[in-house]
Amino acid sequence: MGLQHFTRCILLALCILSQGLAKGADGFACNWGTRLTHPLPPEITVKLMKDNGFRQVKLFEADPDALKALGKSGIQVMVGIPNDLLATLATNVNAAIAWVNQNVSSYISKNGVDIRYVAVGNEAFLKTYNGRFVNSTFPAIQNIQAALIKAGLGRQVKVTTPLNADVYQSDSGLPSGGNFRPDIQDQMISIIKFLSQNGAPLTFNIYPFLSLDADPHFPKEFAFFDGSAAPVVDGSITYTNVFDANYDTLITALEKNGFAQMPVIIGEVGWPTDGTANANIKNAQRFNQGLINRIVKRQGSPKRPSPPDIYLFGFIDEDMKSIEPGPFERHWGVFNFDGSIKYPLNLGGGKQLVGAKGVKYLPKQWCVMSTQANVQDPNVLADSMSKACTYADCTSLSPGSSCSGLDTRGNASYAFNMYYQTMNQRKDACQFNGLSVITNINPSPPQSTCQFKIMIDLGRHEKKSTPSSAAPQGNVHFMIILLSSFIFNLILSLFV
After folding, report:
1. Could you tell me whether strands 232-234 and 237-239 are parallel, antiparallel, or unpaired per DSSP bridges?
2. Deepest of 109, 140, 289, 484, by most Cβ within 10 A of its Cβ?
3. What does pLDDT average to over the chain?
4. Signal peptide: which range, if any (predicted)?
């Protein structure tokens, strides 16, 4: 009798735990971008997530090293499919089956990766794409769903598609006027209906920073959760920040089209720390602290008090990310590229951000403009800087950025050093027409946010198998699953 009672208790506990995990992970969610010249080793990145309470992560593509490091970690994964694969997946179900087998099934079965979602495309309906992906997105979603079912993962892994907030609009300028863009209305309804029938969520990216940065007349305080801007009154609802107003515009659009209960995930939201005047540490800390406070309190919006899962964008900086939208694109991380803390954040319950451990760096030396350098021809300096900034990240020199206040010599030193570090401090990487020299003295300006970086030493971070720190929690969790043109303009601006 006692043994039977004990067995029932164990089974009941496992069922409760399994149900709780199926609903979502406690903690925070983030986006892990991997466009870096000197990436933080995946196992250190995963450890950094766990140390800071991140229990869900979105990958923009099926990066093998990232997925292997996430195996048995206890972190739930959304794995993305890039837009350039949509056409193939839309027209060939066998291609979808092959993609799922290679990038989902194998990592679940062989590595114990807890993949919960496949994100088909990324902001495929952006107006700037001029309809390029409009006709391929929905068929690709259908084929990936069919592939998941064929793989026996139809219940465990859900399909979704991250969309930009520009897929909906409001003619009245108020959330109550929300509806989907007329040019994609039919595609949106087809996608939403299909996802709803398969118990899958919609994913949307909302960026208050872009609203502020794109419009000089945007009320700055309305971009933040603790702002003092004049509220927006919409009938009986008062909005005090643009995030809630934007999100409820979406909820209204769903309601108007018969999908009032459609589950929604916020796939990206955050604030960059460099690249423009509005992208700075003070604003980023203010915005992200307000966002985290909402997540901790499980606070929703006026129209939907139940909060969505929110994936913070991003986890670490990416010095190879496209800067077509703006130089700030490489600076969205809560952490620097090496996992060091940019600014403090209170994570609730007395917890603070902690930085990465075990990171190994190149020697403490920098490439700077020589004090003896005499530039007779300014074109020589411009050519040298152009070379450096073509192959390295000089976005911190952009107008309004952290290093925009440097003089000509400082600009050149910053550019030379970024190239030198990006090239792993090769001796020939500090040769700029006789203008440069290697120094052991840190050239970073004192009491400034402008930092002359030292890169991660990739040679000292040998590839390892997933470390034992990927924890008992991950192993238990896995068992439960088993059981159930910028550079040219920049250089010119530096000489104006």
Report:
1. antiparallel
2. 140
3. 90
4. 1-22
Tokens of 223: 């971009």
Task: Read off the pTM.
Answer: 0.88
Complete domains list, the chain, with CATH = 16-352 (3.20.20.80), 362-455+466-496 (1.20.58)
Catalytic residue among 61, 123, 255, 329: 123
Does residue 255 carry a catalytic annotation? no
Tell me which residue of 2, 55, 130 sits closest to 295, measured CA to CA: 55
407 pLDDT higher than 90: yes
- Helix 472-483 crosses helix 2-23 at what angle (to 10 degrees)? 100
86-100 residues labelled b (16+ CB within 10 A) or e (exposed): bbebbeebebbbebb
Whether residue 250 contacts residue 296, with contact meaning beta carbons closer than 8 Å, is answered with no
Tokens 């192959």 correspond to 391
Instruction: Count CB-CB contacts under 10 A for residue 129.
Output: 13
Query: Nearest-CA neighbor of 76 among 54, 106, 103?
Result: 54
CA dist 249 and 50 (Å) reads: 34
pLDDT-derived band of residue 375, with 50, 70 and 90 as boundaries? Answer: confident
CA 470 to each of CA 163, 218, 341, 343, 415: distance values in angstroms, whole numbers, following the listed order: 32, 45, 22, 26, 39
Structure confidence by residue, pLDDT tens digits, 71-81: 999 999 999 99
Is the distance from CB of 29 to CB of 314 less than 8 angstroms? no
> 43, 61, 255, 268: which one is catalytic?
268
Q: Is 311 in contact with 55 (CB distance < 8 Å)?
A: no
Give the Cα separation of 241 and 351 in Å (integer).
26
- Is the alpha carbon torsion for 386, 391, 395, 397 positive or negative? negative
Three-state DSSP class for residue 201? coil
